[in-house]
Design a protein that fits this description.
Length: 216
């Protein structure tokens, strides 16, 4: 698919699942569970052991059922490795203009982490597709509402602090989608291989997305 198609898929889903775990073996099953719950966009973070192998395995297993990306990308070399392994997008915890440039070179989506209006503006001017505001729990939905005032054209996504209680508030404040990690993929569910719990949680978040859109 094209970069525009991938963007549409991210926005349609409304959730970017952050797949982060100390063990890599169950993560393909985690991706399956997310898809079964209605969340078909997920990033495999580079903090996962053998992250590139996990990404390749998930791509092979899931095919077009899931839009897979790589997270915790800190430099352009890692970004390139992720794209060659099959990542359709990359997510970073911080702003690196060279990482954005690498994504543009490969025609892929890029979501850099920013925390201030200055960083957000720099990232957007450099070609970022979605700005990941991280850690969002520090600033809360009020920050999103304030930023959207002077920068209504910028797509912003909270990551950190998004849970079943706060998700709707972030959406109402102008978030284009939600980055959700452990509040969606419970580490205990992963370690105990209770993947159905992940599917159930994914469905709950999707219901929040649908409810928000029904009001628009």
């Amino acid at each position: 698919m094209s970069r525009e198609d991938d963007m549409r898929r991210v926005l349609d889903c409304g959730i970017v699942a952050v797949v982060r775990s100390a063990e890599s073996a169950p993560l393909v099953d985690v991706c399956r569970a997310l898809a079964e719950g209605g969340v078909d966009v997920a990033e495999i973070t580079f903090t996962v052991p053998d992250a590139l192998d996990v990404l390749k395995a998930a791509k092979k297993a899931m095919g077009d059922r899931m839009l897979l990306g790589a997270g915790t990308v800190l430099d352009p070399e890692t970004a390139r490795a992720a794209f060659l392994a099959g990542a359709e997008y990359i997510v970073s915890p911080s702003l690196d203009l060279e990482v954005i440039g690498m994504a543009r070179r490969y025609g892929k989506l890029v979501m850099p982490g920013c925390f201030t209006p200055t960083e957000i503006t720099k990232a957007w001017q450099a070609g970022a597709d979605i700005i990941k505001v991280f850690p969002a729990e520090v600033v809360g939905p009020a920050f999103f509402r304030a930023v959207r005032g002077p920068l209504p054209q910028v797509r912003i996504m909270p990551t950190g602090g998004v849970d079943l209680n706060t998700a709707a508030s972030f959406l109402e404040a102008g978030a284009c989608c939600l980055g959700i990690g452990s509040q969606l993929i419970d580490p205990k569910a992963v370690s105990s291989r209770k993947f159905e719990l992940i599917s159930e949680k994914a469905a709950k978040y999707r219901d929040i997305i649908k409810a928000h859109r029904s009001k628009a």
